[in-house]
Input
Amino acid sequence: MLSKNRLRIAMQKSGRLSDGSRELLANCGVKINLHTQRLIAFAENMPIDILRVRDDDIPGLIMDGVVDLGIVGENVLEEELLSRRAKGEAPSYKMLRRLDFGGCRLSLASPVDTEFNGVKSLEGARIATSYPYILRDYLQKQGVTFKPCLLNGSVEVAPRAGLADLICDLVSSGATLEANGLKEVEVIYRSKACLVQREGEMSPERLALIDKLLTRIQGVIQARESKYIMMHAPKDKLNEIVALMPGAENPTLLPLAGDESRVALHMVSSENLFWETMEAIKALGASSILVLPIEKMME
Ligand SMILES: Nc1ncnc2c1ncn2[C@@H]1O[C@H](COP(=O)(O)OP(=O)(O)OP(=O)(O)O)[C@@H](O)[C@H]1O
Ligand SMILES: O=P(O)(O)OC[C@H]1O[C@H](OP(=O)(O)OP(=O)(O)O)[C@H](O)[C@@H]1O
Ligand SMILES: [Mg+2]
Output
């Protein structure tokens, strides 16, 4: 039985978002044993219960106030929002933040051998999708009506099966489209995983716990996007070297024993350092360039 006093978080049980969701919570110091097939997991060190469900159910669980937080794709959240609005409901939730995984786009795709003459030419077309409301919202704004063909999975087979003229489905690398003889013709929605909170009353303790988690998530994501950079740099080229580093803060400079012309330079960069930048830094006379990952960060 779930306790009313513990924070409830819904995440995808198995699929594209489950590893990212589990890792994020683990990196935030939430200790959960998800190795078992249990659909409910209890954190050992914090008053948090995890509900492991189909991703499609997460927006509804948040909007109905069953869980306090959920980690879900923006695409699924938006579809549920539009679907409930179409039924005359007024669903609500709080978007706490976008996360750094689950990036994909919802796109229209047509068979490679057919010509695409723009969205306006789709009037009356049969389009297979699992996202009828997002698609309708997009096409309606362009004054286009279409015939939806609802499929919950394997949408890519619809044109070859003679069910539809085009599809509207999620794309990331584009490999699935290619394997099915389809080409992406229009992006209609860009999505990432996000952290969502239910509306409504919450105890001060629960709000404080959400706040703590959010601060930790910020630290985890910021650390993942940052690098610690160390090098030996010539003193007369310091400005040029620092200017090459993306998102650099003030560097720390330390003397190098037995070398008057160079210093040890340490700094945190808010982005990854590309090979090209490292080569340019080396060309300015720097050596022993190290780029290290950062585990945690707090400002
Ligand atoms: N190719 C992809 N690359 C990155 N993220 C993706 C990709 N496809 C989907 N996603 C994101 O991950 C979410 C979950 O995708 P997944 O394919 O695991 O869903 P599902 O098959 O509906 O799973 P479930 O069994 O939970 O209903 C999508 O709603 C989307 O936000
Ligand atoms: O552009 P790509 O990198 O090929 O990714 C796109 C595919 O990924 C998703 O399905 P997934 O593989 O998660 O399987 P599913 O159909 O079981 O949801 C999505 O529905 C596409 O089919
Ligand atoms: Mg699903």
Summary: The mean pLDDT is 94. The pocket of magnesium ion (ligand 3) is lined by residues 54-56 (CB under 6 Å). The CA atoms of residues 68 and 86 lie 24 Å apart.
